[in-house]
Amino acid sequence: MKRMPLPLTVALAIAAALALCAGCAARRPLVPDNIGYHQLQESFGDRDFTPLQGRRILLDPGHGGVFPGVVGLNGISEAEVNLGVALWLRGLLEAAGAEVHMTRTADTDFLSPADSSLTVDLAARVALCDSLAPDVFVSLHHNSNAELDRDMNETQTYYPVGREGADLDLARSIHKHLVRNLEISPAKIMAGNFHVLRNATVPAVLGEPSMLSHPEVEKKLSAAQKQRLEAEAYFLGLLEYFEGGAPFWELVSDTTGWRAESITWRFMPDRGPIIDPMSIRLEVNGEEAGHIFDEDAMTVTWDARDFQGGTVALSLAARNLAGRSMQANRLSLSFCPACGFEHQIIPTTSDHLGPYLFSWKHAKGYPHDLYYKPEGSDSVIALGRINAPYGAMLLKPGDDWSGRSISYITAAGEDLTYMSEGGYLFNRSDARPEVHWHILVDPKNNQEIPGDHWTLRRYPGSDVLGRAISYYLRTDRPAFCSIPDHSAWLEIRGARPILVDALHKTPWQEPCDLPRDTLVWHPLVPELVGKTIVIDPHGGAADTDGTAPMGTPGRELNLRVAERLAGLLRGAGADAVLTRDDPGFVPPEAKILLANETEADLFITLRRATPGAPGWSVGHHYGSSGGSFWGALLAETLGGFAAPDTIPVVGSNAYLLRHTACPAVDVAMPLPADLDSEERWRAPAYQQAVASALMSATAAWFQGEDLLLSLADPRTFISEHTAAATLVDGCDWIRVDGNWLWLPPRRETVPAALLPLPGDQHTFEVRRDDRWELLVSGSGEGDVTRVWPFWTSERRPTNPFAETDATHEASGP
User: Fold this and answer.
1) Which residues contact 348 (CB under 8 A, 6 or more apart)?
2) Could you count the other beta carbons within 10 Å of the beta carbon of residue 41?
3) What is the pLDDT of residues 119-140, one digit of tens each?
4) Which residues pair with 740 in a beta bridge?
5) What are φ and ψ of residue 485, in 5° steps?
6) Is the pTM above the cut of 0.85?
7) Given this model, what pLDDT does residue 465 score?
8) H-helix or E-strand spanning residue 60
């Protein structure tokens, strides 16, 4: 979202408040006594303060009244210093257009004649937070230590324990500028359980920038200009936090009814960048659940139709592309399914499948035994059993079902996964008259293949079903039904999307010798489909795997890269299994057992390099030729981060490498050594680029080294073959072939991610700001690869392939 410049008077007010101390002073090294508070180290001259406009901020100067806090050797109390810094900070924030409230503006407390405990004082501050509902809560303090060590000084920034979302984002933004401008070391971000933090209902932070017990620090903080310096550091931290936006979820489903077939949330950026699709996590009753993310509408949908009734707790969390976390949206619903059973028999038009479809809708009381009753007969014949409230069944091919009726009874007993004697069952259908059935086949041998859950997506503005629908005929026969005169868009993990227009033709002409209504499944990396890769993000619990200067633990960076690698591998059709998905610790023995239980094909550990070791390195077991080959591939694909010949690939006797049954590697990545490199490693685009390099090497291990010849930047592929203007320049992301997310680098030091793009048939979903576009590439006239806009959120183009393919007469969807 574009930011409007501040009015001149506001800009001048801020400039006057900051004065010359906000100049472009060179970064000073830490002085031996580590007192800090020299001068502001950052420039305000080119900063845009509009992200602070209208933000409601509650400042809490700690202590006051009968609670002086730390009292310095020379008598300066923490309460008065906290208030001085808060007043300076209030002036700066108000000049930038923020709405600022303070828990106190004088040396007072919140005690009452009936209760003079500290708990009452703290509860009053939290109550003010509840009533004001600010965007953030900032509690300002200064520290001491139990031993009253007069030589000790450090910066500590606390966020509420267990709240590692927006609260931690706020703490990191403030901590970063306290460290840069106060120049005190050590500096730590820590989880805290202080009363005002654990009870704050908004993102909250408690700052302890220095130790007032140090006599020289006390001396400096007795001066107004040093209190102002600290306030300026807080101001810059709050500015950075709000520059990233304050995204939130908007519930758009009607949850007041007795039964909802789906629950949908819409992403609201709130002056920040758009959502990072890789970060979406939906939990249903505490377990991670599947969801549908609509790139055009920016919505997340949970399909509730299989839920059998009762109470369900939903929790949805995500981050935007600035890395800013949304507060988890928690929802508790009670479903009261309606009684009744609805069914119909409708004809289909697929001769090779069977002419009749039986569909049902029954919200409770299943499973059912199904029977059919010929007209004029008192006898019934068992047909099979229904195990889902919504579904459909293709009746036996060749049978004449005209004049027959269907009856059912509720029954318990053994579950059946499909109908008996040649009846084909699939779950959760939205059947409509004149359904077209499409069989999905492997292009290598034209044979029907086993399938997974297929997702039916919608085009912007179309009335095609837009929620997740999983179709089965049998476990060995995946099929898809479509509706005449309607376009359709079908996706599955590991395959290029299937796009069909109103006449059920695809942009890419399929072989003419295939059966009618047959669609071809094109795997992105055929040899990777169905393989299992265990990804081990090193560290957990007390093992931080190193800590970056801003306090980011290596274990967190490892997990972020691992999550993105897992997303790419799953998009290629593999089963990616993480040894951990939270900060907890998993013992090495459990990781080995996990690899055994999943019958893993490969095992990869992602960790931080130890001090003194090369920044990048790849280890494998001495006796593993597969590990050695994988290591060489990784050294090549990671060349964008360090020259390939500088990444050592070495034999190792490390425990996990030695004891995994499958080929295994250990990838050591640099631990950020300064603030700039730490910010780079925290950037989603950098994490995605590293994950893309890891995925490409892993795919080449299965597919062969030649796969690396097809690696390309999607922007380059599009720009080289495009026939029309697109949104690629300045885009927020591109989703490649329906499965792989690509993020543009935001700075020159971040290499662009490369993805396998063999051949010329691909799809690219491009998102920029509030616009969306679907591009399709293929061979045009003279077998020249071209890229066309296939669909946009603003217009509905005709099928571009019709211009170059005389046999393809269909117009676009």
Assistant:
1) 354, 355, 356, 357, 394, 435, 436, 437, 481
2) 20
3) 888 999 999 999 999 999 999 9
4) 736
5) 65, 15
6) no
7) 36
8) strand 56-61
